[in-house]
Amino acid sequence: MDQARLRLPKVLGLVAAASMVAGTVIGTGVFKKATVLATNLPDVTWIISIWLLVGFFAFIGGLSFAEAVSRHPQAGGNQGILTVAYGPIWGFLWGWTDFWIIRSASIAALVTIFVDALVDLTSWAVGDVSVTGRVVIASVILIIMGSIQIFGVGLGGKIMVTVTTVKLLFLALLAIVPWVALAFPASASSVANLASKNPEFTGGFSNMSAHLGTAILAVLWAYHGWGNIAPISEEVKDPGRNIPLALLLGIGAVATLYVLVNLGYHLVMPLEEIRTIPSGHVAATEVFRKLLGSAGVLLASLAIICSVFGALSGNLLAGPRLPFAMARAGQAPAFLAYLHPVWKTPIVAIVGLVIWSILLIWIGLFTTTLGSLTVPVWGEIKVPSGGDLFDWLTNFAMFGSVVFETLGIVAILRLRRLQPLWDGYRCPLFPLPSLLYLALPIFLLSNMVTQQTTEVILGTLFSLAGVTVYFACGFNRAKPLTDLGDILAIDGRSPQSQAGSA
Fold first, then answer.
1. What is the pLDDT of residue 42?
2. How far apart, in whole angstroms, are the C-alpha atoms of residue 421 and residue 414?
3. Contact 145, 313 (CB under 8 A)
């Protein structure tokens, strides 16, 4: 197969890459997780400290991850990094988990949230829409957005720049308006709200750890997504410079806004009020409702729709690059490596991810409304009627996400031994950032074993199923569609310049 046809064109500059980082990170977490933190932490100081702490870990993780991605800017992202650092089975397991659960479930969940917000915004004109109708709308939206990605990563990158700009402006408003409102005595803003408190931690260290673990996991979800720079890294111009800058600028901007936005929340609403926000409502909308009335609700709804759209677009932009890269490496069916002859996008991988995400939405519809299902021979199977399948999928997938993303972040500990003669970006203070970062996943995973035991067991079993598929389908013996020299070539450098590569 012609190797040139399997290379993605470099069309993304620094602004588009940084927008990809910030745009995929800012989704629903900063709007929806305020209630979780208010429920589990005793006061605003604790809440802001957790946002700063996880932001710090994201930053030092970005310092390490940037070097790994800069060394191997290819469409598979973590899949390629884990393959080089630890062996092909680890790259396959990341791709297996990401495609079937993490990425597709996230896309399915995001599009349903998008539709819910859209229906709420237009309810005055069209009234309520049935659950089945919402699923149909979600499916159509995914088809349209997937089609946009087929027409070129350049177009997708421009959309990300536009949407991310709108999201950042809204978050800036959300951070600033509560402080401006302090100048008006009749406004809802009050510095006294910052002193509101919950009961202190009780029950000893184990109970405190459980509450902290839940809060940190919630904030980690809000920061989740900055690693999406990896799957599009092959399409970034001057990756040795732009990838580290994109990660650091994107994470830095997001962390700053997150802290300021949460301070804004607590200026307007005391802790106990945020803790009791009804299900289906978010802190951002309630804050703008109190400050600006119905106009504020409209503004917040539009901004949240835009925010979810950006996260959805980013996932649809990055997600298909992984099955494309796996097929190119011989770890998935070869047709997934097909590039459109005109638009140079992995069209089959895009279509495949969209179809599977749509199927997950319909599976969610049936399993959450049937109550039970009778299967021949097996008998009656109880399903969680009225539950949220997508939240459940995302929760149990976080176990695999924490494991495999951590492996990618600390991969430079091995890559530096494999490839000592590297003249691109190097993580400062190495290996301190990588070693410090390990404290976060170690704490989370140990906490999940006791607090989210079901998710840990299911995540482990799913990974073991991936191991079975890997050997049963002969992927351990698969021959890549391109040779090692083509995969490792970076901006025209020869494989020899990657000295030390196995």
1. 92
2. 13
3. yes
pLDDT tens figures, 464-498: 899 999 999 888 887 665 443 333 333 333 333 33
Q: Is 6 within a domain?
A: no
Number of domains in the chain: 1
In whole angstroms, what is the distance from residue 75 CA to residue 239 CA? Answer: 12
**Helix or strand run (H / E) with residue 11:** none
The residues pairing with 43 across neighbouring beta strands, listed in sequence order, are 197
CA 216 centroid distance within chain: 15
CA atoms within 13 A on the CB side of 132: 3
- In sequence order, what are the residues at sequence separation of 6 or more whose Cβ sits closer than 8 angstroms to the Cβ of residue 267? 178, 179, 181, 182, 189, 190, 191, 193, 194
- Is the predicted pLDDT of residue 2 greater than 80, yes or no? no
Nearest to 331 by CA among 88, 136, 143: 88
User: Whole domain around residue 232: which residue ranges?
Assistant: 11-497
Q: Which helix (H) or strand (E) holds 220?
A: helix 204-223
Euclidean distance between CA atoms 60 and 7, whole angstroms: 30
The residues with which 12 forms a beta bridge, in sequence order, are: 236
Q: Find the CATH number of the domain harbouring 180.
A: 1.20.1740.10
Paired with 197 in beta bridges are: 43
DSSP line for 263-298: HHHHHHS-HHHHHTPPTT--HHHHHHHHHHTHHHHH
Report yes or no on 368 lying in a domain: yes
CA neighbor of 447 nearest in space, from 30, 62, 40, 98: 40
Question: β-strand 372-375 against 379-382: which pairing, if any?
Answer: antiparallel
Q: How confident is the model at residue 241 (pLDDT cuts 50, 70, 90)?
A: confident
Choose among 48, 481, 54, 460: nearest CA to 226: 54
Q: Is residue 493 part of a domain?
A: yes
> Position 142: which residue type?
L
Per-residue pLDDT tens digits for 56-104: 998 888 888 888 888 887 766 788 889 899 999 998 998 898 888 888 8
Closest to 51 (Cα-Cα) out of 16, 21, 25, 70: 25
| Tokens encoding 4 | 């040139």
Determine the Cα–Cα distance for residues 274 and 452; give it in Å rounded to an integer.
24
What digits encode the pLDDT tens for the residues 355-413? 999 988 887 777 666 555 555 555 555 544 444 555 565 666 677 788 888 999 999 99
Q: In Å, what is the CA distance from 147 to each residue of 6, 82, 465?
A: 20, 30, 32
Q: Which of 460, 447, 344 is nearest to 101 (CA)?
A: 460
DSSP annotation of 269 reads S
Per-residue pLDDT of 399-448, as tens digits, reads 778 888 899 999 999 999 988 888 878 888 899 999 999 999 999 998 88
Name, in order, each residue with C-beta under 8 angstroms of 110's C-beta and a sequence gap of 6 or more.
27, 28, 308, 311, 312, 315
- Burial degree of 499 (CB within 10 A; 0-12, 13-18, 19+): exposed
